[in-house]
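Job type: complex structure
Entries:
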Amino acid sequence: MTAPESSAAPLYRLEEAGLALLLEGLRRDGYRLVGPVVRDGAIRLQRIEGISDLPRGFVDEQAPGTYRLRSSGNGRLFACRPGPQSWKRHLFPPREPVVQLKRHGDSLEWRRPVVEDPPMAFIGVLPCDLAAIRIQDRVWMEGPFQETRYVARRRNTFIVAVNCLEPGQLCFCASMGTGPKAGQGFDVCLTELDGAFFLEVGSERGEAAVASLPLREASEEERRRLQESLKQARLRMGRTLETRGLGGTLFGNIEHPRWEEVAKRCLTCGNCTHVCPTCFCLNVRETGTLADGRQDRERFWDSCFSLDHSMIHGGYFRHTPKQRYRQWLTHKLGAWPSQFGTVGCTGCGRCIAWCPVGIDITEEATAIRKTSRGHVRMPQPRSAPVRAGDPLVPTPAQVKGVRQETPDTTTLWVEPTGPFHWKPGQFNMLSIPGVGDVPISISGQEGSGILHTIRAVGKVTRALTSLQPGALLGIRGPFGTSWPLRAVRGRIVTVVAGGIGLAPLRGAIRVMAAHPRHYPWVRLIYGARTPADLLYPEELELWRQLLHMEVEVTVDRATPDWTGNVGVVTKLLRAGRKVRPDGVYLVCGPEIMMMVVLEELRAAGVPEEHIYLSLERNMKCGAGFCGRCQKGPFFLCKDGPVFRYDRISFVFRHAGL
Amino acid sequence: MTASPLYSGTQVSRVETPAAQGATELGVDPTEKDARGGRPRLGVFKFASCSGCQGVLLSCEDELLALADALEILYFPEASSHLQEEGPFDLALVEGSISAPEHLEQIQKIRARSKTLVTIGACATSGGIQALRNFGNLDDFVHRVYPRPEFIAALATSTAVAEHVKVDYELRGCPISKRQLLELITAILLGRRPEIRNESLCLGCKRYGYVCVTVAHGLPCLGPVTMNGCGALCPSVGRGCYGCFGPKEGANTEAMAQRMLQLGMSKDDVRNAFRFITGYAQAFREESARHE
């Protein structure tokens, strides 16, 4: 990420009085200045008025679990290394409104409040932190969705970077390629050396800001001194981290005993995630109360160390400290390159200093590397074009009809506002004002309306399944990948569904049922807990009557009137015939069912690339922002929910990922 | 294929089963209207406690009118002399620990009359500061404190309500947080999941942007093992958290205690830090026992 240290780039000398003029000029141009300030014994990043607020004469001492400010014995303004706060709290605030709901008579309107704060000028952004801002840009701005409030703030933010000549004990930006010289993305970059500032310009905006400053071109000697100082800084990093192939190594060592060891020390407090300048996981909550009568929604910083982060219909899939610490480290250093084309760590050292027990990310990653037991190939990042609109804003839809499918499952027939294009396998986020929103697969279309089959397991699904015809709700979507209906044309298709897992498959089955010419052999194997839990019985019967389709149904527990199959779906899969290795398999159901189906298919010699799965997570955004739907390097919301099995097999088998 | 129109524009008769009605984790089906057609009925009860948590409800001020509109307050001795103790209650807020012999029966009655029972505060959820007696001998304390110990009828231990009856939800803290109380009541009435996070205090502290007192000042702080909810009150004024919201889920108290010892605390001080306002909560109780 570091820009080439070309000696051709113009370098100017600026005295301190000139810096004061720069800040004054920015203020005059309407920028709110934000910079490092000494407060409560640490450097905080907050609003400043000018250079008199900067931490002149302070420097920090950092060690694992320890941070102290002391006098630097010199008058430097920018001697401090990263402190407990990072710039993300100004671009991605800890709490922020997501939507406000307005009711106009019988209709609903969700609005994203616009950012009204004045533009900010960040003063004194260290190279590691500049890299962190660029990394967060990829999360929030570079597709397929954009976080509109982040974009609004970021576009207007002026960045004055400061090169780092005195890296600290916990610094390893040189290993991460993010420092000590600032890479791309600044408007103006300063180097504080010998009582003056050396200034580079990185943008047109920066050019304009320095136009009237008393600059003088740096001398050859000064230029050489600066290069030499940066070179020395690079050699004085307190920490190092070898990043080559690290992702594959971490994911190849998911069951490494080191995770247990670090878990004994880990408090699962999540401090590392909240001081990290790139961590982006968030949660969304309804903010209205009885008292204010509002039904708004806000998002707030969340952490993969909180249990709630791994909640899925009433249970949790990351119970243990080992699973949570591993999620954080493997994401930061291992999964990030596959997700965003960059490691999620900039080498700033914050997570080491601000861990109350001083766990050291470089030490943990190195320990795994040194005693590695395996290596996997990580997927390449996939870029997606940016889609218009704000993915967090629901649009109103109306319930046209309701159908009780089973005692706990209901299908809503919903009319969205305007045309709605979806593909079988995709999902929507369905919102009930004041209650919340949940991901629900699209299970078919009737006329211009779409169908959602919903099992009442939590608060929101319970509220959804209680809706009456005419009721209004919110829809966001469609999100995610779809079943490969084109790729499986002409193949022998076996669909294996368990329980509610038939719902996300129904759209695909309907297409295959309607087009025997494209799908000449379709076999559906469907299992439910009891006969009463079988979804869509009439439709199953219709499909069964089609010449090109075979439909087999089984239940875990029979009732006296049940004359059909009893047992798990795998029993049907191999009953009376061989599982065909040349066939294609579309599988959706509880993860445990999919595990046994996959084992059966593996035993029969079915290649992994002939198998497609749909997975489930309790996502809060649908757009790759909340981080809750991660499975290793994948976001279920945008890389899934439908996956070709060979892509995810290396993470699918591990619990707690 | 043309599927037959399976969906009509009218409500298909619903299959009513226990699963469909669905007892929620709060014990109330939010969609089920009160059988009497009225507003949900509230009872506020008190056992061994200082009344401070009820005070939080009373100090809601602006919100109190809205609450009084949304709920029918049947029993709230601190607020009204018009009391209907028999209920039944849709929502019972219970403050205080089970500390005296008569409490044992009273709490059973309240449970039987209440659809949703929520314990509020450190006393009701952990036994409170008065549970310090659980670590000693009741008779010794009674004889030392009271001139006429024979008048004192107390249980040997002060315990959390959940040790005696099923509790649907807990609000932690000494006192509870107003935001959490309003959120809980709103969530119960609207049928949403209360946003009361069982996460470390540190996450709240960091969201506010406070500087960590342990890392920056070497002060012991129970924040990493304590449930968030207070607004990181103590760290906001430069003090360590003393754990009044009780242990967070999965609190790694052993590693916490190690760190406190490293910071220079004595074994006794570590024991006493865990054995305080929520000292009888399981995780803290067990940790303090390790430093006897």
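Summary: The two ends of chain B are 75 Å apart (CA to CA). Confidence is low (pLDDT under 50) at residues 1-35 of chain B.
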